[in-house]
Amino acid sequence: MREVAVIGIGETKFGELWDKSFREIGIEAGLLAISDSKIKGEEIDALYIGNMSAGRFIDQEHIAPLVADYVGLAGQNLPATRIEGAGASGGLALSSAYMAVASEVHDIVVVGGAEKMTDVSEVYAQEILASTADQEWESVFGATFAGLHAMIAKRHMHEFGTTREQLGMVAVKNHKNGALNPNAQYRREMALEVVLRAPMVAEPLGLFDCAPLSDGAAALVLCPLDKAKEYTDNPVRIASCGQAGDFMALHDRRDICTMDATVVAGKKAFKYAGIGPSDINLAEVHDNYTISEILAIEDIGFFKKGEGGKATEEGKTALNSEISINSSGGLKARGQPVGATGVAQAVEVVRQLRGEAGDRQVKDARYGLTHNVGGTGASVIVHIFEGGV
Amino acid sequence: MAIPRFWREIPSRYNLIGTECGNCGKRYFPPRIICPQCHRKSFGKMKNVRFTGSGEIVTYSVIHNAPKAFEMQVPYIIAIIEFEEGVRATGQIIDCEVEDVKIGMKVSPAFRKIGEDGKSGVIYYGYKFKPA
Ligand SMILES: [Zn+2]
Question: Which domains does chain A have, with CATH numbers?
Fold first, then answer.
């Protein structure tokens, strides 16, 4: 295994991009990352794209060669592969690319993540999200994707005294960060009262406890660390990746309040990187619902089990506090184009570690972590990045 | 969803048929072909067992935003039930006001219409749970 670096990042604005097609946003993010990295198109050895459900959202499968084609690389017979792992698709595309470079199969690889969710009705989009849980034994009985997360929240409140207000504070914090991110879907702060007064989606989760449906794409360029300085002055090293799985259905998990796949993926990533949770300065975690962020910060090991709500309330996860969680605004405010999420998380962490995050810059950041979840926790992928290398 | 997907699951959804591992004795619902604890030692040893479906609520939510097939039912209660045999399943709680549902509440199974498929028009049935 050789060391791998990120030498280029790019992302579209996230939101309801009605005037842009799937291939247009894929190209936009890809070209931004390629021009940021200063590589030439003919140097690219392979393309990996994270995408959850283009087949249902836009009636188009086989999207990896489609994007490669319209980026102008079909003529060089570029191998292009789509990776699917529900909400973790983007993170899994990154780990596939990372392993390809680390194992010396490829030198320069472009990783993309893209989803176009707003071409279909909201009700249908929610059904597509629910299909990442177990269709036969959860969704079929009326358990929506929000409903499954709401059941995690209800049990967490029951066992640990986590409050409705603490859940809401996750959304408030992430909107505050999102307001500082020019590419975020929601660039406005949101008061706690507004979150708490929002219509219920699945009790105890209201509308503003849920990340939005979004269009968007993000991309990265990877190369071997020892060649990175030929392209950029501040490469970011991928220190490690850890992936783990779990039972498909929430009701079959060991503990409803713990995402074991996060615990295991996190431990693997920390072990390979040779560091621990207290070494991390910033993390982009999978806050598709407010309760998801509370579980994530506990299960990665930033806070003790049951104390994620309290830590949020005490401001320990705010920008430039104990640990900056979701400086981009997270899925909640930056937006949630599902397959793009894991790649967009990496784009944010790399931007922060390069010191290019502007108003939301995390000070003295050396290590950053991304945490990307598929379904209600049946797939989790964690990456750790190091800047200043 | 295609029609065969409904009838294939009928034994479990109608009669709460799950499986028991002939090697370690652990029970599963819905049925499994391989015991996650015994792996190859369980090959060919998984036998069908019928569950009572009685148990208690581990967690729940009241759903307000529902998929098309459930729009007419909102608000409705969805829950994870732990059967007295130890296994867990997800299902709706019926004959219970949304403000009365609680974690730890005892429930028993009821056979009801679960939903219908808009495209094929198929109505499908299965278990829900009501306060015991
Ligand atoms: Zn067994």
Answer: 4-121+214-236 (3.40.47.10), 122-211+239-386 (3.40.47.10)
